Amino acid sequence: MIYLQLFLSFLQIGLFSFGGGYAAMPLIREQVVTTHGWLSMGEFTDLITISQMTPGPIAINSATFVGLKIAGIPGALVSTLGCILPSCVIVTIIAKLYLKYRGMELLQGVLNSLRPAVVAMIASAGISILTTAFWGNSGTIALAETRWSMVVIFILCVILLQKVKMNPVWVMLLAGAMKVGVSFIGG
Question: Domain locations in the chain?
């Protein structure tokens, strides 16, 4: 039964995560944290972090991680298959249709109208992860409970990525080193 649940959960994620991995994060959170309780919000945040640091798409890395945690290697295989199956089918169909009708104004209009929804999904996931990083899993956003070291690390990372144009891998490594340093000092 757990294999079917894993397959169907990640099939839904794979089927409805238009816009790529970042857009899939709210769907993944809904399935693995809210609906099934397979991960806590803190574990979900760790999952996203790990998925960012490992090669491959976030959704597939998440499916593999959750499947492995819940049902071992067979669970990882079933979850990953559920996640990639819709993409394989949909991309094959869309590629054929796009090559045939790419000049149609209606098609271009539909593609353009999906962009705001994708941006909203990415922003929603980002806000959830940001609040967990700054205030933990309590669900309470209070100035007194703010993890200021995390806020400073976040601001520095945004500056390094946006202004300095530093490689994201180096930014992640630097952020990890900063957090270790803060923990060492006692923050």
Answer: 2-137, 147-187
